[in-house]
């Protein structure tokens, strides 16, 4: 979900996901998500609409970046953890790793998450993305516990993990001086402490 963070200069002869995101995010910040059109984004990048749609099927997909690729890496992170690592620790590690971005990408990632969490037009689309993200966790938990991914416990772990992620991002957006991975780690520790306190 990360991308290069420098603003494009002029009209590039070629493009990629990162260039489109940079141009789109600049327009979203300047004039609002609803007011920005795919035509404007294509013009800012210097490509035709057909080229733009090959990278992103809709404007709503742009804030999510290469989400399907991110989910593939998310699954790989779970698969790489040895089975003797406690289940809760595995989920903890992988959720933090999924949200661990290099420092240079953080300003644009902050724009991304602010759009995703606060733009009403994105909420229905986001629900589909959230479901796919939860499914990665539920499927893994189900395998570890030898039960279906849609059984109550795997589904619960997926939902709780998403709620913790959203709460962590809201906290991070409200406090720009905090480190994202530290916010996630603290949230998980606080949740465990609460659940074990009785």
Automatic annotation (TrEMBL):
<dbReference type="GO" id="GO:0000976">
    <property type="term" value="F:transcription cis-regulatory region binding"/>
</dbReference>
<dbReference type="Pfam" id="PF17754">
    <property type="entry name" value="TetR_C_14"/>
</dbReference>
<dbReference type="InterPro" id="IPR009057">
    <property type="entry name" value="Homeodomain-like_sf"/>
</dbReference>
<keyword id="KW-0805">Transcription regulation</keyword>
<dbReference type="InterPro" id="IPR041347">
    <property type="entry name" value="MftR_C"/>
</dbReference>
<dbReference type="InterPro" id="IPR001647">
    <property type="entry name" value="HTH_TetR"/>
</dbReference>
<keyword id="KW-0804">Transcription</keyword>
<keyword id="KW-0238">DNA-binding</keyword>
<dbReference type="InterPro" id="IPR023772">
    <property type="entry name" value="DNA-bd_HTH_TetR-type_CS"/>
</dbReference>
<feature type="DNA-binding region" description="H-T-H motif">
    <location>
        <begin position="37"/>
        <end position="56"/>
    </location>
</feature>
<feature type="domain" description="HTH tetR-type">
    <location>
        <begin position="14"/>
        <end position="74"/>
    </location>
</feature>
<dbReference type="Pfam" id="PF00440">
    <property type="entry name" value="TetR_N"/>
</dbReference>
<dbReference type="GO" id="GO:0003700">
    <property type="term" value="F:DNA-binding transcription factor activity"/>
</dbReference>
<dbReference type="InterPro" id="IPR023851">
    <property type="entry name" value="Tscrpt_reg_TetR-type"/>
</dbReference>
<dbReference type="InterPro" id="IPR050109">
    <property type="entry name" value="HTH-type_TetR-like_transc_reg"/>
</dbReference>
<protein>
    <submittedName>
        <fullName>Mycofactocin system transcriptional regulator</fullName>
    </submittedName>
</protein>
